[in-house]
Specification:
The chain is about 0% helix and about 50% strand. The protein is mainly β. Strands 2, 4, 5, 6, 9, 10 and 11 form a seven-stranded mixed β-sheet that branches. The termini are far apart.
Length: about 120
């Protein structure tokens, strides 16, 4: 099994640039993709970004493309999400996810492990 713990969330004003982290433990060698998803109250969970571990290929939702950067440190088993130029509509609980081989990067159903989430609140 894999355990995921997010950190770095909190209150930030519009235009801010926080960085979220996700620490993975357990059978981390089985991870093929990692991703960030988010969910705001009354809305469906949506993909933010994903990264393929073997070659660091990245995938982004249109809503964050050009503003957010996903990256990982395989040696530390840690995933990051650098968030830039934050907007109030970015307010959500952000979840870290990990998947075994065969996943579709930006589809939540393909992921096997999930963190508990970290709240990001953007004020205007």
């Amino acid at each position: 099994q894999v355990q995921l713990v997010e950190s770095g969330g909190g209150f930030v004003q519009a235009g801010g640039s926080p960085r979220l982290s996700c620490a993975a433990s357990g059978r981390t060698s089985s991870i093929y993709y990692m991703a960030w998803f988010r969910q705001a109250p009354g809305k469906f969970r949506e993909a933010v970004a994903a990264i393929r571990k073997i070659d660091s290929d990245t995938y982004y939702a249109d809503s964050v493309k050009g503003r957010f950067i996903i990256s990982g440190d395989n040696a530390k088993n840690t995933l990051y999400l650098q968030m830039n130029s934050l907007k109030p509509e970015d307010t959500a609980v952000y979840y870290c996810a990990a998947a075994k081989r065969g996943v579709t990067p930006l589809q939540a159903a393909g992921y096997d492990y999930w963190g508990q989430g970290t709240q990001v609140t953007v004020s205007s």
